[in-house]
Structures are given as structure tokens and as C-alpha cells.
Amino acid sequence: MTICTTQLIYFSPTRTMQRVLTGIAQGIDMSDVIHLDLTPPGVRDRTFEVGVETIALLGAPVYSGRLPAEAVTRLQQVHGNNAPAVIVVVYGNRAYEDALRELCDLAVEAGFRPIAAAAFIGEHSYATAAQPIAVGRPDMADLEKAVAFGQQVRANLGQLSSLPEIQVPGNMPYKERHPPPADPPAPITITDLCTLCGDCADVCPTAAITVGDNVITDAQSCITCCACTRACPTGARVMEDPRVRKTATWLYENHSERKEPEIFIAGVWFSSERYSTIKQMYIKY
Ligand SMILES: Cc1cc2nc3c(=O)[nH]c(=O)nc-3n(C[C@H](O)[C@H](O)[C@H](O)COP(=O)(O)O)c2cc1C
Ligand code: SF4
Ligand code: SF4
Fold first, then answer.
1. With a 6 A CB cut-off, is 25 part of the ligand 3 pocket?
2. Which pTM value belongs to this model?
3. 44 CA to centre of ligand 3 in angstroms
4. Which atom of ligand 3 is nearest to the CA of 229?
5. Ligand 1 atom, smallest distance to 94 CA
6. What tens digit of pLDDT does each residue of 116-143 get?
7. Strand locations in 38-181 (E)
């Protein structure tokens, strides 16, 4: 099989996942690159087929050590058609726990063939100027690693039939999901600062926001992804819920030390210290 297309398939409310997959796709360097963005609410009732001669990059963020439930239902609507797949999670510098394993398992169930996997770091959705957590990640160093990983994947495509099954960390059964509280947290809108531009509603992955004469948020639909607070051009949209801010303080105080991406390819675990080795190996190709 000659692979000539890279298809990026992702759920990425604050776009860190999208940026990492774009770096990996750059390293794979196929002539055709297609994005299947599963973030907008409009994809909820649709199914998708991956084409032939395609390598898929599947990506989702880590929420509480798992995949976001919204990402799971959307990814389940994609049929892999036995396409080789690179499985990637992005997490906010705390831990990815069972999420990478969950995404690998989900990919297999959907008919993909995982050939490589990775966990990258993205700016934490709850980060603010006062509580910076992995701010600016993925940064240049991360994206260089993403490109180098893509180059390694590309090199392995020549021996697709003999690649061993990849092994990734994670528990089975996965970490339990906590049921949402009766009064779930959600961002608020500071009316005096709001111009009713609608940018927040445009980026909301669950259609939780309605903008008319004012901004109405359906907190029951909110997944606290913070896409709306990032998108708001005037600073009117803020996540001030004390439960979220308490978590952010804890993350800032306990998980600020920089973590590095982890790569799993052809059954081998490469720590960040070995990236230079990967690069040197593949300069030969
Ligand atoms: C509800 C929620 C739960 C999260 N849980 C975790 C977690 O368990 N571990 C972690 O390191 N980061 C966690 N994060 C941070 C995200 O994984 C991180 O910000 C990621 O870069 C977001 O991806 P995106 O930009 O593609 O949306 C969480 C974020 C949210 C909104
Ligand atoms: S993006 Fe900000 S300014 Fe625009 S409608 Fe939403 S809250 Fe108001
Ligand atoms: S309302 Fe909630 S789900 Fe929608 S973008 Fe804002 S934080 Fe995300």
C-alpha cells in the first residue's frame, strides 16, 4: 500500500492538540493533509470514513486522567478502515494517566491500526496570568519533537506489515469518571465588557452558549474546556468558579515543573533525553 494522505482527526477546544498533530503531520510530510476537526458541535450526529492510502493521526486532550466523554462519542463515529494510526494525547503538565491507553483502545475498536503513540504537553485550559500552568505549550521545543516524531513514523511506514503492536501505559479498567455535580462550573460573562460579538458561542464545542441581547450559558452542557474564555476579545468571558480556581491553584503549586513529551513507537519507549538519538538516526533517511 502506498500512503499519500495524512488525515488529522481531533477534538481540541483550546487548539493545543491541533498544533501538536500539525507538527507531526509536517514530519510525516505527505502530499495531501486533511483535517477532520471533531470539536464543533455540528459533527455530533455525523459519521466519517477514513479513506484508503491514508495514515491517520488521532488526537484528544486529557480530562481528569481520561479522554473527555465528548471526545469519545465523536471519535466513535469515525471508521478507520484498517488505516495505520498515530495515537496522541495532550495534557496540561499534570499527568495523562489512562487517557493514552483509552485512545489506543478506542482506535482499535474503530478499525484503526495503531503504529505509534505519544503524550505531549499543552497549556492547561485553566491557566491564567496569575496561575500559569504550562503556558505557551506546545512551544518550539515541543513542536520540533513533534516533527522528529513524524519523521520517525514516516520512516517506519516502509515496514508497515512487520511493525510490532505498540504498548502504552494506562490501567484497565480505566480510572473512574466522577459524575458531574448538580451545579456544574461554567464561565460567566462580565456584561460591562461584553460587545455581544458571539465569538464565545462560535468556539463552544457543546453549543452551551447563546448570544442574543445577552450571553446565556447552559452550565449543564459546559465541559469547562475554556475555549470561550480564550476566544473572548474583550476579557468579558471568565472562568471564576471557585472550584476551578482552587484546582488551578493546586496545579500551579504542585505541577509547574516542566514535563517533556513521551513517544511510543514500534514497542520502544523513547524518553525526552533520547530525542537527539531519534533525530540523528533519521538524518540518514
Ligand atoms: C476539565 C479538564 C480536565 C483536565 N484534566 C487534566 C488532567 O487530568 N491532567 C492534565 O495534565 N491536564 C488536564 N487538563 C488540561 C488539558 O489536558 C490541557 O489543557 C490540554 O492542552 C487541552 O487540550 P486542547 O487545547 O486541545 O483543548 C484538563 C483540562 C480540563 C478542561
Ligand atoms: S466573546 Fe466575549 S465579548 Fe464576545 S459575546 Fe462572548 S463574552 Fe461577549
Ligand atoms: S461554555 Fe463551557 S463548554 Fe462552552 S466553550 Fe465555554 S467552557 Fe467550553
1. no
2. 0.94
3. 16
4. 6
5. 11
6. 999 999 999 999 999 999 999 999 999 9
7. 48-49, 54-61, 78-79, 84-91, 113-121
Residue intervals in the chain for CATH 3.30.70.20: 188-240
Q: Which atom of ligand 2 is nearest to the CA of 231?
A: 1
Banded pLDDT at 160 (limits 50, 70, 90) = confident
Q: What is the pLDDT of residues 201-217, one digit of tens each?
A: 999 999 999 999 999 99
Ligand 1 mean position, distance from CA 59 (Å): 13
Task: Quickly name the fold that domain 188-240 has.
Answer: Alpha-Beta Plaits (3.30.70)
Pairing of the two strands 84-91 and 113-121:
parallel
- Among 188, 209, 211, which residue has the most ligand 2 atoms within 8 Å of its CB, making it the best to mutate? 211
Q: What is the CA radius of gyration of the chain?
A: 19
Q: How confident is the model at residue 146 (pLDDT cuts 50, 70, 90)?
A: very high
Closest by CA position to 165, among listed 119, 105, 110: 105
Ligand nearest to the CA of 15: 1
Ligand 3 atom at minimum distance from 217 CA: 1
Residue whose C-alpha cell is 478499525: 111
CATH 3.40.50.360 domain span(s) along the chain:
5-174+257-283
Query: How far apart (Å, rounded) are the C-alpha atoms in residues 180 and 168?
Result: 28
CATH assignment of 5-174+257-283?
Answer: 3.40.50.360
Identify which ligand lies nearest to the alpha carbon of 190: 2
pLDDT value, residue 269: 45
Is the distance from the beta carbon of residue 223 to the nearest atom of ligand 3 less than 6 Å? yes
